[in-house]
């Protein structure tokens, strides 16, 4: 693949144009259109330049693992996803680097962070689910990369999204204290909100109560929905909540997934956000960080 000439997303929200996906030759038409731009995805990373996504013209892309249609900008230009093999190392222009969603998502403009999250999620499905889970036959891509058809059993398959809850807990008696946990997977040195997947047949509110009790040993009340975020690791939709602990004295870490739980007051959170005391908080691209930032800033 030659060194591409980068461009920037022209701004404005992405119009996904789901109605266009039924057009059989949409990918081919967009690849031939002069105004079409392409976002390369390798693993969970895309080319980034100066805090912006770096796009290229469709004619500059040679070998890819798979193609998909992401949508259109407000001026009508198409945006395609080109999924690369993780072993691919295409030449990038000077100043352009591969940026992982976890690392750069919080620094991108909001519309570009949405594009990158969508592209990483869709690329993961295109790369990891080529076979029919019912009969094992290799499927055929349809709807411009947004569905798969099994030619043997006729089933249609779509990108999967798994709902997960993530919760910021406040004290039963002091609204200026929040409870955070240190996950064993992080080495026990980063504190974040409590999270877990909703189970089959379980409401989000029930998932909040169960996960919090399992991980931190407490009962909760005043559960309040605060927003959501696509988190394609591997295919989550994180649904953010705030809740209040019923009894602060009940707090305990489960000792397996959560190795420590700790109360933080507003001053301690501010110190941690400024990086002054060695306590690590969630990365800026995560909804966990947004929940903490909003609480610290008095939002809601």
Automatic annotation (TrEMBL):
Q: Which reaction is this enzyme known to catalyze?
A: a 5'-end NAD(+)-phospho-ribonucleoside in mRNA + H2O = a 5'-end phospho-adenosine-phospho-ribonucleoside in mRNA + beta-nicotinamide D-ribonucleotide + 2 H(+)
EC number(s): the record gives 3.6.1.22
Judging by the UniProt lineage, the source's domain of life is Bacteria
- Give a single Pfam family match: NUDIX-like
Q: What cofactor does this chain's UniProt record say it requires?
A: Mg(2+); Zn(2+)
Limits of the Nudix hydrolase domain: 159-286
Where are the annotated segments for Disordered?
1-20
**What name appears for this protein in its UniProt entry?**
NAD(+) diphosphatase
